[in-house]
Specification:
This protein is mainly beta. It has one helix spanning 9-19, and strands at residues 2-4, 32-37, 40-46, 55-60, 63-70, 89-97, 107-111, 114-120.
Length: 143
């Protein structure tokens, strides 16, 4: 039901390590999991250190875009940074959603640095039984 639009993820990761943090014009990728749970798809993004107000979720047609920004923590004037390995900047991920998903009823929850999106499967895509009508007889067409 989901199609990844990021075939060069490993190359992006290496580029991020070489070029530094993401910007709004060149965001870094964010890790995610996607799975089906009953009648919905669940997409989970790891966004540790990101506040909920720094996350932007958009759906246009079948394109889901999640953007987040991890901002630097303000430090006192007398603090000298010894080591900084946690990436800062902008992170983004785009996913093409199948037509069988109901993009009008996406639910988003953010807890402990994990963004969870629940996307219900559209009613028209769920399996259903088709009843068979019993004919009332044969009609002959004369012409």
């Amino acid at each position: 039901m989901l199609m990844r639009t990021d075939p060069f993820r490993e190359l992006d990761r290496l580029t991020q390590q070489l070029l530094g943090p993401g910007t709004w014009s060149r965001p870094s990728a964010m890790p995610m999991d996607a799975y089906r749970e009953g009648d919905q798809y669940v997409v989970v993004f790891d966004l540790p250190g990101v506040t909920a107000d720094a996350i932007d979720i958009d759906v246009e047609r079948n394109m889901l875009t999640v953007k987040a920004e991890r901002r630097p923590v303000t430090k006192a004037d007398d603090v000298q940074m010894e080591l900084s390995e946690r990436p800062l900047g902008v992170f983004s991920r785009q996913i093409v959603l199948a037509d069988t998903l109901d993009t009008e009823h996406i639910k988003a929850d953010y807890d402990a640095g994990v963004l969870t999106l629940r996307i219900p499967i559209a009613e028209r895509a769920k399996p259903r039984k088709i009843s068979i009508g019993v004919g009332t007889g044969h009609k002959e067409i004369s012409g």
